[in-house]
Amino acid sequence: MYLIKRRIYIELQWLKTFSVAAKTLNFRKTSEQLLMSQPSVTVHIKLLEEFLGIPLFDRNKNRVTLTDAGKLFIEKADNLLVQFEESVQSIQSYKQGFRRNWTIAISPLLAETILPYILRTFMRQHPDLEITIRVEESNIIETLVNSGVVHLGISAVDAHSKNLQSIPIFEEPLLFIVPVDSYDDETGPPIDIMDCLATYTLFTHHHPVFWDDVLALLRKHFPGIRTMKVSQAHITKRFIQDGLGISFLPHSIVRRELLEGRLMNVPFDLFELPKVTTYVLVKKQGDLEKEFIHLLSSHYFG
Fold this sequence. Notes:
Structural class: alpha/beta
Radius of gyration: 27 Å
Strand content: 15-25%
Number of helices: 12
CATH architecture of the largest domain: 3-Layer(aba) Sandwich
Order of helices and strands: HHHEEHEHHEHEEHEHEHEHEEH
Keywords: DNA-binding, Transcription, Transcription regulation
Low-confidence stretches: 1-6
Pfam family, one: LysR_substrate
Mean pLDDT: 85
Number of domains: 3
InterPro entries: LysR_HTH_N (IPR000847), LysR_subst-bd (IPR005119), WH-like_DNA-bd_sf (IPR036388), WH_DNA-bd_sf (IPR036390)
Helix content: 40-55%
CATH class of the largest domain: Alpha Beta
Number of strands: 11
Shape: elongated
Oligomer: single chain
Protein name: LysR family transcriptional regulator
Domain HTH lysR-type: 10-67
């Protein structure tokens, strides 16, 4: 039995070495990635080739390339390694008390504002549930839910597929966010919107819905406005805190920073700002989905 276990272990190491070598086509780089000596890499490849009875690499001086057999085998080897890792992960999850798996996809815009408020409660109610969080852009979340890769999605974009339920969870206002000045609320002069637009760069496109309409309206009032696309809201917030620019952000995204005095909200009256909606996307509402949606609906994130 010991010999069988030992042989399986060695063969897995051969497969891993082969997988890395097939991608780098360089035994030195393979040894560096796997933290082993280069002769050990050569031995692993040689043993695997002997075990299979066919060369996997063509060796020409200091260069190696995959043979046709190597090209055929790399996909098989990678699949075996993935299956092994998944099996190990399943056992580790079982040891930790998890008996079920549940996956949520959520946009980066919402991940830091929504999940912390509900995950603790949900996890406490379901100690046997292993939850996986996938942070994905909103335009990808619909595909993940529709294909069954994730059980539920939290998105800033409404679903288009007729196969999905798209449930509005909450609607909130956009705020005009600027860097904090040196005055307090009582002694400071009123902040002029046009001065802000003339002084600062406007950070845009960190939300997938409203920016085209807002920019079109802004340019009617201030044609020379300077803009910079910043795709992530948390980076936008940091840039504003550092005095690099201004932006329009949903209230829930900046609630904590406003309370702590790290950002300022300036009343905006050039035109009416749109509201933004957060949606739960789900293909089928089982008990877990219904409970999670209820938790989301019962919290106010603004």
